[in-house]
Amino acid sequence: MADQIGAGRRGKAVERMAGIELGPREQLRCVIIGAGMAGLLAGIRLKEKGDQFVIYEKGDKVGGTWRENRYPGLTCDVPAHAYTYSFAPNPEWSQFYAPGPEIQHYFERIADDYGIREHIRFGVEVGACRYSEGRWHITLSDGSTDVADVVIAATGVLHHPKMPDIPGLDSFAGDCFHSTRWDDTVPLDGRRIGVIGNGSTGVQIVSALSERASRLVHFQRSPQWIMPVQNFIYSETDRHAFRSDVSNIDAIRFGQDYWGGIRRFNAAIIDADSPEMAEIEAIVLRNLEESVTDPELREKLRPSYRAACKRLIYSPNYYAAVQRPNVFIETGAIERVEPEGVRMRDGTLHALDLLVLATGFHADRFVRPMIVTGRDGADLNQAWAVRPTAYYAITIPDFPNMFLLNGPTAPVGNFSLIDIAERQWAYIDQLLDLLRQGQCSAIAASHDALADYEERRIAAARHTIFGSGCTSWYLDAQGVPQTWPWSYDRFAEAMAAPKLSDFELA
Description:
Layout: H1 2-7, H2 11-15, E1 29-33, H3 37-49, E2 52-57, H4 65-68, H5 100-113, E3 120-122, E4 126-132, E5 135-140, E6 145-148, E7 150-153, E8 175-178, E9 192-196, H6 200-209, E10 215-219, E11 226-228, H7 236-244, H8 247-253, H9 256-270, H10 275-291, H11 295-300, E12 313-315, H12 318-322, E13 327-330, E14 334-338, E15 341-344, E16 349-351, E17 354-357, E18 371-373, H13 380-383, E19 402-404, H14 417-436, E20 443-445, H15 447-461, H16 488-496, E21 503-505
Parallel strand pairs: 1-2, 1-7, 2-3, 4-18, 7-19, 8-17, 9-10, 9-17, 10-13, 11-12
Antiparallel strand pairs: 4-5, 5-6, 14-15, 15-16, 20-21
Helix pairs in contact: 3-14, 9-10
């Protein structure tokens, strides 16, 4: 890092600093937005450095997406032992792919074990962040304000539910809710249930309710490719081995089976004509052909796009679930919702008692709808008028000392976002060290650096499997994948040390 600081071109802002001694700061004052996975990570690392910080969380608990999602069948599609902080392994997972409540419990325990809960203000949403006179001024939903040297935006991506635009939805006489607003008081057994949406959430809900509903209708706009997996249970003997020797956990989370699969999948994503992609397509095609016996149903479930163009669905039992006699796959167009159920364009009425909306999220929001005003009145909504973007997914020109975790264009896919966030934090912390050491009072990527990054990223993203011809939440309004388009190893290399010539320091 020191070599880069000495050799890097620090821009015009640094030239104006010549001869000015800022001096080291005893500690930074930081505001973290969100107490999910990334916000807890930021809090733990800031506490280790002795910085002052507060976490503002709009919900009543930690956990982020794992707090919001409580639907039946919820699991993570990343092996449980890989979906933990590197410094906090968990020997108590009950199965290979952990159920949602266990993951939520893990984050609750982390907040307590690392003394982070006392730094969190629950039920307080950040309404606005304004940069003025070298500091961030924060406006909060309870009417209070705060001031900070640094803002860490750990809001996540999938936290603004997307409601379907279906005529008559409000007229439905039964129970109806979005999958992230699950009503635990609503009975499920023996009821007629409809599920709209068939991403990971819809697939998991249908799989879980197929044995409980008297009739289950899965409304799918387009079918999904399904990667077969086994979700085996860990015995008490297994958990004892994990407790006794962490190397048994490391063999899973750092082992070749997991990372070999990650690199295979990553190679397939960035090169749609690669042998790795051919292998994945062969696996999911064989799964469809061999698992679904009814030819008519098999064709309903056959996607018209390439595997992994949408986020690949990992499921051990979806094909078995939809072949139960009480389950119906509806591929027709919905005309409207009526008090009795869902009316299709061909006139068919699916009478229902419960309608679940597994219709996803507004994935382009990130920190929005909060109002973010940067240097010289820069407006984040205007900066993101074309698409949300940030230099290496972390920093935005004209918004000094504001850093994003899992921000726009960060890597996405069937791998642990905890690992991604930890690498991003290592990068951010090196920038924070410049502030702590008094080498600058403000730092953000330059416009030229972001423009160069985006030009290269967009060109590469168009040729990934995500850009091969399907609709998905990975695509921005112009149809460009909002993703990291290169290899995982290239991401790890980029996160190892900031290239300071791409930053403006003041």
